[in-house]
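Entry 12.
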Amino acid sequence: MFRTIVAGTDGSPTAADAVRHAAAIAGMCGASVHVVSAYNTGAVLQSIACASGAALPADAYRLGESAESEARARLDEIKRELATSGIEVDTHALPGDASDAILRLAKAKGADLIVVGNKGMSGAKRFVLGSVPNRVTHSAPCHVLVVSTT
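Predicted 3D structure (tokens):
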């Protein structure tokens, strides 16, 4: 059935729920799980600032390094949580947009399934950037499971 599953996390409780679902499916199928957390680098922050006409903070590159550290910490926590599950779990901190990071990793790993939660951004931010589940389902190279995290 499924051999390689990709799930994304931003550290939120709803993303953690989606990762738990991915792990449960992996356990039933004998699949491996690749968990990805995206972060913005200083270069990404600069391009966002240029596109919006906003001023870039002087410490933008330090903010990018901090974002990467936070992503890695989230992934370490997930790896600890799933350590006793008996499934193979790999974690990936990738720069850029969350949906792009999930899709890039799914393609690189030849994923059979992507698991995402149905909750995330809301309001104007969702309108401008789009929702991760929406973007993933429209561009995925494989099956997508959208977990109800309400």
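Annotation: The chain has a mean pLDDT of 84. The chain has one domain: 4-147.
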